[in-house]
Write a structure and sequence with these properties.
By secondary structure, the chain is of the alpha/beta class. The chain folds into 2 domains: about 240 residues, HUPs (Rossmann fold, 3-Layer(aba) Sandwich); about 130 residues, TIM Barrel, CATH 3.20.20. Helix content is about 30%, strand content about 10%. A 7-stranded mixed β-sheet has the order 8-7-13-12-11-10-9. It has a 6-stranded mixed β-sheet with strand order 3-2-1-4-6-5, sandwiched between helices. InterPro entries: PAPS/APS_Rdtase (IPR004511), PAPS_reduct_dom (IPR002500), Rossmann-like_a/b/a_fold (IPR014729), UCP030820 (IPR008318). It catalyses: [thioredoxin]-disulfide + sulfite + AMP + 2 H(+) = adenosine 5'-phosphosulfate + [thioredoxin]-dithiol. Its cofactor is [4Fe-4S] cluster.
Amino acid sequence: MGLPKLAPAQAAHDKLKALGILALNGMFDEMDAAGVLRYAVSDVLPGDLAIVSSFGADSAVLLHIVAQVDPSMPVYFLETGKHFPETLAYVETLKKQFGLINVHAIHPSADDVARFDPNGNLWESDPDSCCHIRKTEPLEPVTEQYGGWVTGRKRYQTRERGVLPHFELTSDDRIKVNPLAYFSDADVIEYRQKHNLPEHPLYAKGYKSIGCAPCTSIVAEGEDPRAGRWRGLNKKECGIHYDFSGAIANPMTAASRHTLWKDGAFIQDPFKDWVEGTKASEARYVHVPLPEFLANRADYLANPHPLGLLVSPGEKIEEVADDLARFASVAIKFPAFTDGRGYSTARLLVERFKYAGEIRAIGDVLQDQIPHMRRCGFNALVVTHEPTRQALIENRLPEMALFYQPVGVAEVPVGTRPFLRRVS
């Protein structure tokens, strides 16, 4: 079954904005999970809402409520390729028992897995990258089809979720609905028993929060229910959620924090700043300076993690031409508005080396430069200048109708005679 293509319900979203997220959260009793979901489906985002379920230890409760409210609601399951066999069997059990007729499995890109996790053990050395490849990346294009989505998160699960509301406004102006936000562990158990819901096969064995098999362990009595997720690591979320508390990002203000402009919006940047002294074997989701890469080329090529390349003025992209396919992104630095050497680097990437990945401009990126950057091949921008941010958001960049240096073979600069141009 193909993924449903739904247009955003703009009118419904405008209505929500007018009502106000705080007023909306004040409309429901803390334990009225069914009322929250029913209102979200019928009044907030009718026909524009989906649910993302892990089919884990607590999933039966929310999916049972979904089945009562709207069994045709799209339900997405991230089939990471790392689940317990018991979880995959549980998916089929709940689908059949609850009459859920619109369940879709989302798989990671086979190319990404082959490139970054060929041996299947990336979770061991870099769980953040593993989650990004197997969860965040596959889910993003799906959730973009909807004005909002439903989660099974609860306040009691972690300290960071302790102020989770029923409704959240995310950084990209969509809605997250958390019907079970105020449910405790005891509430979940009581609901499950009251409605005689099937229990996850691993729950009785001590697995209180169940994700991918390699990163899930048994929880001891008295431990946080999610203590068995990524045990021993400084990791609490897989990356597909923003915590309302702001521990990861405050969804009410995250848009103002994001600086990466790509595909028409400011989005979360998966790349972190390069830290001097980082070992080549441990680097991941950073733009490696070109000289650093050349000095340790073999080690970086052997590194299985996603990497980018950082090119500063004066550095020659030609020196890494044979290795460009290794990089998911190339960041070109503009140290000053008047330094135009980065444009030539971008054109070399696109026209000579046929690089098809992300080409991002960083540094002194201002609105007057952006039309020319786009002509030269930039498809991502890191923007911190507030007037430029607003110009991008409001789509009021200056137009470039006249130019003297053509890009490619199709453009003809003003004042020239195209029939005299030599085609190389």
